[in-house]
Amino acid sequence: MSGVGAFPQTPVVPRRRGVPTKNTTPDHRASMGSTTSNSTPLPEAPRANTTPPATVAPGTGPVIPLTVLEAPTQRLYAAGFYALLLAWKLYDWVGVVDENTESFWLFLKWIAIDMVYWFGLPEMRIPWLELSQPAVVTIFAGHAILNFMMMFNVGFPWQSWLLGLVKVFYDRELAISEHNVKLSNILHNSSLIMGRQVINILPEGSAELNPDKFPFCLGGDRKVVSVPIQFNATIPVEVELIRTDLESNQQESIKLSRVQLRDIERKAKSHAHEGTETVVTFDYPIKKPGVYRLGKVLDEYKLEVQRGTPPTFVVPCPRAWVGSSSSPNRCVADLSDVTLQVEGTPPLKIVYDRTVNGKDKSIHLQSLQPDGFTSPLIGGLRSNKAVVTGLAWDDEDVSWARSQKVSVALNESMHSAGNWQYSVDEVHDAFGNVVKFTSAADDPEGKPKPKHLVHSFVVKERPQVLLEGCDLRNPLKVAKGDSKELPVRFRYPGPSPDDTSHSLTWIFSPIDTLTESGDHGDVVAAGSYHAKNTWDRPKISAPGLYTLKTVTARSCEGEVQEPASCLLLNPLEPKVTLRFEEIPDTCAGNSIGLKVDLDLVGTPPFVVRYDEISNGHRQPRKIQIPGLRWTMDLIPRVAGNHRYVLTHIDDAVYKGQKLSGPEYVLEQDVKPAAGAIIQHSTGKASACLGDEAKIDVLLLGDAPFHLEWEVIHDGKRKHHSASNIETNEFQIKTVPLTQGGEYTVALTSVHDKRGCKSSLQDEMKVSVRRQSPRAAFGMLDNKRKLLAIEGKTNKLPLRLTGEGPWRVFCKNLNEGSDSDKVLESKVHYDNGYLEVKGRGIFQITDVWDSQCHGIVDPKTSTFQVDWLARPTLDIALTHGVSQLESGQFTVAPVCEGDVSGFEVDLTGSSPFHVGYEVRHKALQGSGSITRKEYDCLLGKSSITAETGKAGTYTYVFNSLADNMYNNDKNFKSVIVTQQVNRKPSATFVKPGQTFKLCKAADSDAEGIPVTLTGVAPFFLEVEIRHETAAAPEIYRTPQINSNSYEIQIPRHHLRLGSHQIRIRDVKDASGCHTISDLNSASAVQIQLYEAPKIYPLETRTDYCVGERLSYTLSGIPPFEVWYTFDGNKLKAKSPTTNFRRIAESPGVFSINTISDKASDCRAPVDIVKTIHPMPAVKISKGRNVQVDIHEGSEVEILFEFWGTPPFEFTYTRSTNAKKGQKSQVLETRHDVSHEHSKVVRANQEGTYEVVAIKDRYCAFSTLQEQEKTKRIKY
Fold this sequence. Notes:
With 1274 residues, this protein is mainly beta. It contains eight helices and 93 strands. Helix content is 9%, strand content 45%. Strand 30 (544-553) and strand 31 (556-557) form a beta hairpin. Helix 3 (104-120) runs antiparallel to helix 4.
């Protein structure tokens, strides 16, 4: 029997003593085994293909027969399986160590796995692996202790060594992006610290090209530039310049001549003799553009002298000129169309002046460069000198410094007329070379600028044109064959120039081709005219329609304003026809004149010109005739032969139309006798009491006349006379006639200058009123007041005296005392009527009869008219009835099927007849209109509202009649509206569905969808019945503003388990509600579960790239975690209660929801962590820069930082590396920067490198790459 811990015995097959078998072990093995005393020799392992004899005890062989799998192979599989379990255990252990936590569940898991493995291994009966029971217990106990130390993160001495060994084989973890990343690649990023600055201390002597870094250019009058070369404490014997051609990038070597070197030597010795500084400046002439730098400088000892390496750019001088424009003629609102050509090293800058009518404005244009141009000068923030000295450029490519041409197009809208000028003032190139062009005012000699720098032109006003005095309603009329100026008005918006010549174009359509609307027809002809000045107008003669189209003046097209169309007509030529008869003398019977009738044709007014030839004396005369007919009496004043010859006729269009022929000649012989005629048609006249009578008398004969007459009244005669009447017309005026009655004015005699007295018989009777006319209102029913039906014409009785007809003037006093509205009525009878339509107090203000002014009696001058009241209809403002601002009435809304109504108030003379319409507008579908009428004896009636169907009911009362008034067309409809609301309803979208909810409130949790009908907002009552509760719980939803809603039942109404949800009641905004049948099958189920939770293992919120974000989960695994990183939504799965991710990039990491296996709950969480980028630093733009300086000089070392300020950085100065020698650190410095860049001055030789950097949150160092990045707190 072997001791504890000894190898297990391999089962052997029994064999006979001393009888060797084919599988017998050789003798030397036996001899080797015999050397060990007190030990049991190992039995031989069974051979393959060895068949045990039948005497082997059953159950003592391996579980897997050796014939199936050999014993070594079984042992190999067992060892391999154990190795896999060990690797798995190490993996879990690394996770525990990385998270710096402990896991009881992992401990239990590995206890169970180890127990199954070690206690199950002997049961497999694998040869050599049949462990005894004490051995298995001991091994299991050791593994249990190891599991405890590993899973509870108990430190042991070789832990770091083992952890590092594991990391060598596997260093990948799951990152936030759900990809496996290698942690070492994140933590040890060589791009975080880049660049180095190497400073070499050169010998004391130095040479520098262009020490002041001035820009230089060649071109124009500048053929040569002198670039200074400064030599410090040295006398050169050889100076080499390297020139790089700007066009070909070819380099050439230029050496100073011996003469130039001797000149430098002479200056140096002169300074040394004078005891001044040994600094010599030599001006080297340069005639060719290029990039110049010092190549090699040797002193008198043939040693190379320190030299400044920055290049000096000698470029072509920038220049500019104004390009030619496309058109010299410019008009207001045109574009300037000026091109500036700029040539030089981009980016360029130009300064030019724009002068408009003497007002100057300077304009700067910068950053002028060709398309696609790139240059190291673009985007720099340093001065031009700094750019030239510290620019990082490629010696092999200087094409960016070539002179290039850039065109600048100036297209400005020219808004004002006058003199415009563009002139170039300055041009700058990228290196700061400036070329200025002085104007004549600034030049000492008064020289003007060259023509190619100035471009001047004149901007002209655009003309305007329209037609004056002619349009389609007021056409031009012109005689046939004549022409007339088209009434064109030409003008400018501003001051008119001296030259107002212009060109016009128009279109013309003949009069017989115009359309019915008066527009141009199918026949259209174009016309044009060039006017020399404003008053030069085109002449037109053809009848038709003329329309202006364009106007052009001084090469500028103008604006045609309205009116732009004119109609030209040719009227008929004037003609006249004469008809005449003699006027006989009443005494002698001789003709005393002619009565002539004229019939005319043409366009009034007419002017008929004729010659009156009396006794050989010709007298031209003319007659103004306004119409087409005219009658005149040709009665000569003197006796003799009289001829009347019509010579010409004019009308409004034709002038000077000649008349010829015997039909236009009239002749008569006249010998008139003295006579007098009263010029009155009837010989009778009336006069008012107290008025004068005026009688017109026509005297016949030769003046002067003497006239005699008598005035007879009441048998009394009064003789009157008048002498020396020089005219043929005389008016007799009587004295005021103060007595009524009949007066007779009789002519008695007359004689003219011949003294021949003629007796006269003509008389005139004048009837004088005995009293003035009067006017007053009559009475109706013994009163001057009338009640009438509205709108009816009323006759007010009048009482008039005098001779009709009368003119009665009346006004309504109710219209205001200041009203000037007076009604004039003509009344033919003394007991007539005054017709009025309005109501009020009417007053007679004045009266006239047929001849005389009358008197109004103030006591009877007024009459009052009023209307009988019309019937009215109004709606009683009872409870629920209100009146809107529009005048309509509204009745409070009711629900479908409710009882409602309103009352109608009626005034007037009963009985009443009311007609109205009931208009129903349904919620869906078409509406309906019902006409209703009813009679009412009382002044109040009730209307029962229609509520049978939901919708809007409108009651329009549009007719009303009473005993006095029939239906009035002017009756204003009374409108009453009422809304009948449909009863609301609510149903589950998916009745019978089961919803799974979390106990924790979740705003994103699925709600119970409900469909509602009615008027929003709605209110629901929901019955909640838990599976273990006896009585249900009622939940009332908040206001629902739409017809679809998801019910979110608060968690305090729910308990873990199953719930049945039913809708009890629904109410909408109209106040209607519907109680649901609780026995209906419409219900849903809710299952409430406990929600999972997540907790961060650290309370901090700021992390760095490369750190781990660790959380612990509560619930039943596996878990699903939804989170947002840098705006992207991701989902992760965690099979355990631990959730950990590597921060591989900066951003905001926010866990939004989690769920576990127990339910579909997605518990909302809000755990936000900010991942900050690792700080980075670049020295000398991230390049290895080597600078040679003199002793005592300084170099600016630029540190650029990326991250969150403030920055702390550590840099070292090491010895400059040489072949075969390792660089050693001379000193280490620490500095702080609160900005993203810092400049440190250094004057000591060495290599400067940054070895550590940290910002506000994170740090990085190259000294210990194994050190983890740590978060920095301030």
